[in-house]
Structures are given as C-alpha cells and as structure tokens.
C-alpha cells in the first residue's frame, strides 16, 4: 500500500488537472501504487517513479521526497521549474524536455546529488548555467540543447567525472570552450555550438588547447557554427586521432579547401571507426576535397558535403576508394563541368544519393545504378537528361521541344475568337438561369424558398454550436 500523505498529494494534482481522455481514470482506488504512471517501493510503499510524459504536469511534487524517476517531457507545462524540485534529493532521472519552461535553471538543482540523467532540451531557459551544476557528481547524461543559455560554458562541468553524454548545442554561448572538459574521460558523445544571437561572437576553440586529446572514449563529436575551427590546425589533427570516433559533424564551421589541402593527409588519418562525416554548410570549393577525404578515411558510410561551393568534377579515384559509402549528399553546390562522373557508379553500396541543385549537364550514365535513384536526387540540374528524369536526351543533350510559331494574323484571330466565345458563353449561361426565374413565377418562388430555408438552417446550426460552447465553458 502507498503512503497516505503521498496519495493525497496525487489526488490534489488530479483535481487541478484537466484530463479529457481519462488517462488518470485509475486514480480512484485505495492503493495509489497501482495507479497508471506510478511505481512504488516494494519495501516502504513510497512513490519512486511518476511518469506522466505526454499527459500533464503535476503541481504538488514537494511531498514526494522519495521519488527516483520523473518524466514530464512533451507535456506542455510552461512556466518555471517549481522550487520544490530542489527537495527531491533521491531523484536519479529527470526529464523536462520540450515543455516550454522559461526563466533560469534553479540553483537548487545542484542539491540533486544522486541525479544520473538530466534532460532540459527544447525549452526557453535563458541566462547563465549555474555553477552548482558541477555538484551533480553522479550525472551521466546532460542535455541542455535548444534553449537560450548565454555567457560562458561553466568550467564546473569538468567536475562531472561520470558524464557520458553532453549536449549544449543550439544555445547562445560565447567565449572559449573550457579546457576542463578534458577531465571527462568517460565522455562518449559531445555536441557543442549552434545559433548565437549576440554581438560578441560564438563559441571559439583556443589554439594550442589539448582538452579534446584526453577524450579517448569519444564516439560522437559535433561542432556547429564554431567559426574559428579553420584556424587551430592542431585541433583538427586531435580530432583525427580520436581512436573510437564513429560520427563527426563540423557543420557550418567556415572550413575551406585551402586549409585542408595545405596539410599532408598523413597528419589527418582518421580512425577506421569513423563511419559518418558531416561537412555541410562550409566553404569548400575545390572538388579535390573528395580525393583528400578518400586518402584520410577508409570506412565512411555516410558523407554530407551539401551547401558548399564545390565545382569541377570528381575523379575516378574517389569512386574506387570510397566504395563503402551508402549515403552521399553533394546537393546545393556548383558542380557544372560535364556530366555526372561515372566514378559514382563504382560505389557498390550506395543507397542514397543527392545531386540536386547543382549545374550538372549531359546524360545520366545508362545501365548503371545511377538510374535507379529517385528523380528528386537530380532536381534543378537544368541541362541534365535521361532516366529517371522525364527529360529525354538526344546525342547526350536534353531534347528540345519543337517551338511552333504562328503568324501574327493567326495570333490575332485566335485572341479575338477566345474573347468572343467567353462573352457568348457568359450571356447564354446568365440568361439561361436567371431569365427562366424571371419569366416563370413557380420557379422563382421555389428558388427564393430554397434560399430562405438554407439561411434558416445555417442560422440554427450556428446558434446550437454557440449555445453548446457557452454551456461547456
């Protein structure tokens, strides 16, 4: 049996909650431990878990001092974090994602010393992250992405020695990434950077900073809109040396082919574990970047180079070496020299290809897997032709539709006939309907009676709906 004091707190919450779908219909029996969304201790009867995600937000949590698990994600709560959260000292799992919370993070959250999972993504939090977050020594998962945090990333995050997942992306942080992150040797996933709405610049990488080289367990790394990543060459070399890295995203980091191609490939030999690489929204221009990548990576499965400035064509070398690729995105570039390179057909495993929004020309190579892709992957290449496109080829070029030119006197005749037929049609249809109503009295009476009945019916329906709405309110 559950504790009566905690049962009363839940019943108070139910009274204050709108539950149109009866999701809390089980909250009537004597034993609240049997209620939906509630889990209690078999020994003490205290409530350990309250899971109401996608349902509603409780307002009386201060009494549930033994709560271990709290998931209120996607419930549309809004407002601020209640101060009672600071007293939930036994809490291990807290998920408040996407519930439109605002204000700043409570310093009292630093009291939750047993917390292992904290997810506050997709809200409207602002201000600085409190330094007390460094007190959460048991924390393994921290996601503060998609908010409006500003200022510097607190160095106290470096105290979270158990942390495995860190996502601070899509906020308004500025300044340098704290070197204390190098203390988090258990980190497996790191997501940093993102949009910034201030005038002082976004997150920066300090040249000569080696914190990343200590993260030997890292498997996922993402830098989003980190503008000076193009400057400290040693930092990119450290990324290449991460032994377990599987996914790397350097999205919108102002990278250019000048920086990459000026470095010897031997200094950028990525681990064979790297399978997903996102270099989209940068400033690569030379297609030689494709050859460079084929020299520094060996097992890529997914490569995204969309929204760059690439032009020219790929070499046959690229197709032979990158034959492990399953997903290749080269859309929104400037490829315009010649037709689609046959080297792409040498990538046997390729399942997703996007060459849309370029300036490719000529015929799509026939008898190859390049014809098996959806036509959308070749969209907006005006001089491209052949299957799967509807535009046919003639001698390797798009077939031109015949242009039929009419003499000027025939154009004038066509225009006059068109407007004359419109005028005749209007006169016949108008007088055919309204003329008969004016001439025949019985038809005229029937018409106006129909209009009157229709207006009455609409008025009655509207009045009934307004009455029901007011009665329900």
From TrEMBL:
Residues 5-41 form the Leucine-rich repeat-containing N-terminal plant-type domain. SUPFAM superfamilies: RNI-like. It comes from Glycine soja. It is found in: Cell membrane; Membrane; Secreted, Cell wall. The keyword Repeat applies. One of its GO terms (cellular component) is plasma membrane. Residues 103-334 form the Disease resistance R13L4/SHOC-2-like LRR domain. It comes from the Eukaryota. Keywords: Cell membrane, Cell wall, Disulfide bond, Glycoprotein, Leucine-rich repeat, Membrane, Plant defense, Receptor, Repeat, Secreted, Signal, Transmembrane, Transmembrane helix. One of its GO terms (biological process) is defense response. InterPro entries: Leu-rich_rpt, Leu-rich_rpt_typical-subtyp, LRR_dom_sf, LRR_N_plant-typ, LRR_R13L4/SHOC2-like, RLP23-like. This is Receptor-like protein 12. Pfam families: LRR_1, LRR_14, LRRNT_2. It is a single-pass type I membrane protein; Peripheral membrane protein. The keyword Ribosomal protein does not apply. The chain crosses the membrane at residues 418-439. Belongs to the polygalacturonase-inhibiting protein family. Belongs to the RLP family.
């Amino acid at each position: 049996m559950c504790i009566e004091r905690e049962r009363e707190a839940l019943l108070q919450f139910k009274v204050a909650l709108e539950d149109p779908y009866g999701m809390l219909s089980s909250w009537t029996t004597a034993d609240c431990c049997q209620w939906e969304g509630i889990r209690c201790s078999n020994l003490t009867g205290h409530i350990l878990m309250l899971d109401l995600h996608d349902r509603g937000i409780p307002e009386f949590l201060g009494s549930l001092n033994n709560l271990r698990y709290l998931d209120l994600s996607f419930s549309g709560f809004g407002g601020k974090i209640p101060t009672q959260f600071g007293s939930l000292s036994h809490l291990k799992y807290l998920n408040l994602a996407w519930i439109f919370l605002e204000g700043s993070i409570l310093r009292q959250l630093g009291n939750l010393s047993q917390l292992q999972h904290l997810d506050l993504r997709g809200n409207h939090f602002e201000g600085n992250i409190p330094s007390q977050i460094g007190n959460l020594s048991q924390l393994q998962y921290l996601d503060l992405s998609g908010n409006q945090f500003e200022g510097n990333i607190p160095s106290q995050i470096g105290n979270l020695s158990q942390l495995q997942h860190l996502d601070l992306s899509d906020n308004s942080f500025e300044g340098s990434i704290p070197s204390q992150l190098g203390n988090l040797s258990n980190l497996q996933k790191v997501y940093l950077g993102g949009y910034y709405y201030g005038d002082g610049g976004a997150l920066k990488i300090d040249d000569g900073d080696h914190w990343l080289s200590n993260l030997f367990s890292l498997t996922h790394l993402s830098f989003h809109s980190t503008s000076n990543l193009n400057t400290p060459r040693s930092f990119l070399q450290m990324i290449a040396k991460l032994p377990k890295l599987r996914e790397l995203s350097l999205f919108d980091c102002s990278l250019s082919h000048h920086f990459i191609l000026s470095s010897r490939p031997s200094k950028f030999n990525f681990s064979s574990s790297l399978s997903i690489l996102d270099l989209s929204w940068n400033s690569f221009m030379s297609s030689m970047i494709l050859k460079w990548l084929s020299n520094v990576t060996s097992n890529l499965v997914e490569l995204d180079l969309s929204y760059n400035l690439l032009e020219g064509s790929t070499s046959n070398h690229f197709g032979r070496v990158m034959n492990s690729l399953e997903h290749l995105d080269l859309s929104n570039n400037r490829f315009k020299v010649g037709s689609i390179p046959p080297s792409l057909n040498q990538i046997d495993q390729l399942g997703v290809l996007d060459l849309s929004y370029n300036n490719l020309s000529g015929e799509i190579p026939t008898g190859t897997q390049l014809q098996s892709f959806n036509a959308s992957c070749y969209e907006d290449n005006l001089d491209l032709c052949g299957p799967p496109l509807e535009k046919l080829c003639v001698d390797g070029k798009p077939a031109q539709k015949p242009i039929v030119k009419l003499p000027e006197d025939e154009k004038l005749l066509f225009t006059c006939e068109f407007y004359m037929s419109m005028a005749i049609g209007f006169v016949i249809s108008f007088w055919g309907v309204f003329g008969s109503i004016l001439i025949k009295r019985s038809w005229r009476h029937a018409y106006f009676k129909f209009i009157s009945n229709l207006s009455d019916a609409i008025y009655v329906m509207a009045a009934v709906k307004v009455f029901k709405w007011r009665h329900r309110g």
